[in-house]
């Protein structure tokens, strides 16, 4: 079949089972949009307010569904607007295909109108990228891009297509959806050594992250923990892979992690790290990080091993295969004194808990009302950490948050994308600062009647930065006070969404119940105190024997 | 673990932009490269990049696994000093003068270098060898006055009948 390049692009996406794409049109992708109209029934295009929103939507779609997310943008400013979205996906290893148009091949290199070297710009933030010079190569390049994005450690791949390549014709032949490259199976010797290290350990701690989510390792992790009587904790990226209700799971560890989780990891004599990268937010000062513990590190990506932390046993292999073999290889063993210690840590953690802390009440109330499969999406800041700490996760892939890049403005796009990825209502926790960066996408949510409930944790400040100023900059609140005059309830209504306001926990429960059961998008302006803090806290580069748990722990 | 220098041979697809991808990764990951050479190989599909750098075992491991992640990289192999032959080529221009000429020629003979250009003011010399030999030659030339020099950086190949492309992973 002889088709134009633009039609080949669309047909290849359809052939690869891509049902939804997010994007924004322009001069160098107008041919592709022309074809999208033609194939409307087979592939749905969501027009966002901004290309960044489209990129985050593709990302949220991928995180929520486990499938690849696709975004389409025009050359020049369209392409550069994708950059933050691509970088966000790269840092959190999210499979994404970004397609950009470019000026015609003969115009490239002449600083033509809206010409930009987007493959050059995205080189360090993509797994790989392509510029397609010949229409004949288009279909295979897109297929290969999808395969790269989804295989091994996933990530974004960009395909840049000059306009003339879209207009020329080539033969197109339908192909099967691409097969993901299989991961290396676990090595028996590694499994045996790990089993031996576990047998020798008195205080094992299983530490898992985004790689465990990608692999869907939750049940196996729980099974292993039961068999060897281990405690468990996750990085920010690992949340929702194991239900919060599992008593062995102590929650997120790290800079703002749960006290018991961070402490248990610090006291463990063996850390079994699965699909994590020992990020600096998780380790603090690496030279002092769990220095007494033996460490096993398993990840699909060999370059993560011994990158940030030296380990005693590490292997790049398939996580599922490793866990299955390890569970068979280890002996069942009870470790009562370790479990008693864990219980003690939990009790200590409870002592710091303030039942009247409004952000905690808000997140918990929302969590009680939402269904188990509701995606909990966040922007970046204090509200993100409160959601991570207090939301009760049951189903997998229900936690959607920008961990590695910490991108404010991620939330709205990601929440829209995750609603598309699941066909279910998403809940977004955002801040008045972050929402200022992505509120334009409320228009998108209204246009498409996206099931989405937005909770703006409105503290009148860039709270997370303000908190650092409180702790380390003598309360010199330089440029972190917002107190804008924006009325979020009216704003929501002006954009065509439902708007609510709440100032107390009772009001919140009441309006959340309504907002959650609305049909389309709804927003709650939740007023909280400017001085609320995210605790506990291990300051950047700090150590886990000095966790700040209460306001009084710092010299204000 | 001691900091020492090691040499890595990388087969990459002979395609547009591949060198940029490799060097961009070095910059992004903060690897400090001593020398880097690129050239054709026995197969038109591939180019061979030879990289030498100093670092410890961890740096070496990181460099190799980061290289292996690059899509256009087909093969990465460390060429250890005992298993490999390492060479570089240098062209060096030194001041010519009647009083130094004989000494320069002596050094050229001892080092098995060559005089490749001659003028009343300058001699252009070519030398091939491992890095130590080239360094030593430079030291010898310094007193005569070095006008200009350029080194290719290291190329390396394994001894024996194998190609690194055929090595098992
Ligand atoms: C795009 C971007 N710019 C700046 C930052 C730095 N930063 C991190 S948290 C934060 C404050 C976020 O404020 P808000 O969204 O209101 O959330 P809060 O902390 O108040 O809950 C800032 C400015 C960032 N993470 N991302």
Task: Describe the overall structure.
The complex is a heterodimer of chains A (556) and B (169). Chain A has 556 residues and is an alpha/beta fold. Chain A is built from 23 helices and 20 strands. Chain A has 3 domains: 170 residues, Rossmann fold; 164 residues, Rossmann fold, CATH 3.40.50; 170 residues, Rossmann fold (3-Layer(aba) Sandwich). Chain A has a 6-stranded parallel beta sheet with strand order 3-2-4-5-7-6, with helices on both faces. Chain A has a 6-stranded parallel beta sheet with strand order 11-10-9-12-13-14. In chain A, strands 16-15-17-18-20-19 form a 6-stranded parallel beta sheet, sandwiched between helices. The model of chain A has no long low-confidence stretch (mean pLDDT 96). Chain B is an alpha+beta fold and 169 residues long. In chain B, the strands form 2 sheets. In chain B, strands 5, 6, 7, 8 and 9 form a 5-stranded antiparallel beta sheet that branches. In chain B, β2 and β3 form a beta hairpin. The two termini of chain B are 25 Å apart.
Quick rundown:
Chain A has 556 residues and is of the alpha/beta class.
Class computed from helices, strands and strand pairing of chain B: alpha+beta
Q: Measured on Cα atoms, how large is the radius of gyration of chain A?
A: 24 Å
- How many domains of chain A? 3
Question: Can you tell me the CATH architecture of the largest domain in chain B?
Answer: 2-Layer Sandwich
The low-confidence runs of chain A, each spanning 5 or more residues with pLDDT under 50, are none
CATH superfamily of the largest domain in chain A: Thiamin diphosphate (ThDP)-binding fold, Pyr/PP domains
Mean pLDDT across every amino acid position of chain B: 92
Tell me the number of helical segments of chain A per DSSP (H or I, 4 or more residues long): 23
Order of helices and strands of chain B: EHEEHEEHEEHEE
Radius of gyration of chain B: 19 Å
């Amino acid at each position: 079949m002889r088709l134009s390049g633009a039609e080949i692009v669309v047909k290849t996406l359809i052939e690869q089972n891509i049902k939804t794409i997010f994007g924004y049109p322009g001069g160098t992708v107008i041919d592709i949009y022309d074809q999208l109209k033609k194939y409307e029934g087979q592939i749905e295009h969501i027009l966002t307010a901004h290309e960044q929103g489209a990129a985050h939507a593709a990302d949220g779609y991928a995180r929520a569904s486990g499938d690849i997310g696709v975004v389409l943008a025009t050359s020049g400013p369209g392409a550069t607007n994708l950059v933050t979205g691509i970088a966000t996906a790269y840092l959190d290893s999210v499979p994404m295909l970004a397609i950009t148009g470019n000026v015609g091949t003969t115009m490239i290199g002449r600083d033509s109108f809206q010409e930009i070297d987007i493959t050059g710009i995205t080189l360090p933030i993509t797994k790989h990228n392509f510029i397609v010079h010949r229409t004949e190569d288009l279909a295979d390049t897109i297929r290969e891009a999808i395969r790269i994005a989804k295989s091994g450690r996933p990530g974004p791949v960009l395909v840049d297509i000059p306009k003339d390549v879209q207009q020329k014709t080539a033969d197109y032949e339908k192909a099967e959806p691409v097969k993901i490259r299989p991961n290396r199976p676990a090595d028996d010797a590694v499994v045996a050594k790990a089993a031996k290290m576990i047998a020798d350990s008195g205080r094992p701690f299983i530490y898992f992250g985004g790689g465990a989510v990608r692999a869907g390792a939750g049940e196996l992790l729980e099974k292993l923990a039961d068999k060897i009587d281990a405690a468990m904790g996750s990085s920010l990226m690992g949340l929702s892979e194991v239900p919060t209700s599992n008593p062995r799971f102590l929650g997120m560890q790290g800079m703002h992690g749960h006290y018991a989780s961070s402490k248990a990891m610090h006291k463990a004599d063996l850390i079994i790290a699965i699909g994590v990268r020992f990020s600096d937010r998780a380790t603090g000062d690496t030279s002092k990080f769990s220095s007494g513990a033996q460490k096993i590190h398993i990840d699909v990506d060999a370059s993560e091993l011994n990158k940030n932390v030296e380990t005693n046993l590490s292997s790049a292999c398939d996580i599922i295969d490793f866990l299955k073999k390890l569970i068979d290889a280890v002996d069942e063993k009870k470790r009562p004194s370790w479990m008693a210690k864990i219980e003690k840590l939990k009790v200590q953690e409870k002592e710091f808990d303030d039942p009247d802390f409004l952000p905690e009440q808000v997140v918990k109330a929302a969590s009680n009302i939402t269904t188990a499969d509701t995606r909990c999406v966040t922007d970046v800041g204090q509200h993100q950490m409160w959601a991570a700490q207090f939301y009760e996760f049951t189903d997998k892939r229900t936690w959607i948050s920008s961990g590695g890049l910490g991108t404010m403005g991620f939330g709205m796009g990601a929440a829209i994308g995750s609603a598309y990825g699941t066909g279910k209502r998403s809940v977004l926790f955002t801040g008045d600062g972050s929402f200022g960066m992505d509120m334009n996408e409320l228009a998108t949510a209204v246009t498409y009647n996206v099931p989405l409930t937005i909770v703006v944790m409105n503290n009148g400040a860039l709270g997370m930065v303000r908190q650092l100023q409180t702790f380390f900059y003598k309360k010199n609140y330089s440029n972190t006070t917002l107190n804008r005059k924006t009325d979020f309830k009216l704003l929501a209504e002006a954009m065509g969404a439902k708007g609510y306001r709440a100032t107390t926990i009772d009001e919140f429960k009441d309006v959340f119940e309504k907002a959650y059961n609305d049909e389309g998008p709804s927003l709650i302006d939740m007023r909280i105190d400017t001085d609320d803090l995210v605790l506990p806290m291990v300051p950047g580069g700090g150590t886990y024997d000095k966790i700040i748990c209460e306001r009084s722990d710092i010299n204000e | 673990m001691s900091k020492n220098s090691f040499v890595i041979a990388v087969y990459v697809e002979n395609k547009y932009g591949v060198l940029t991808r490799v060097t961009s990764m070095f910059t992004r990951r903060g690897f400090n490269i001593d020398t880097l050479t690129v050239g054709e190989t026995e197969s038109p599909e591939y180019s061979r990049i030879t990289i030498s750098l100093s670092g410890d075992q961890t740096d070496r491991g990181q460099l190799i696994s980061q290289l292996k992640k690059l899509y256009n990289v087909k093969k990465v192999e460390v060429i250890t000093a005992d298993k490999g032959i390492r060479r570089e080529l240098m062209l060096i221009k030194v001041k010519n003068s009647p009083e130094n000429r004989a000494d320069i020629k002596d050094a050229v003979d001892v080092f098995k270098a060559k005089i490749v250009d001659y003028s009343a003011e300058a001699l252009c010399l070519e030398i091939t060898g491992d890095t130590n030999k080239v360094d030593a030659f430079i030291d010898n030339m310094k007193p005569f006055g070095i006008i200009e020099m350029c080194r290719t950086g290291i190329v390396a190949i394994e001894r024996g009948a194998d190609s690194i492309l055929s090595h098992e992973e």
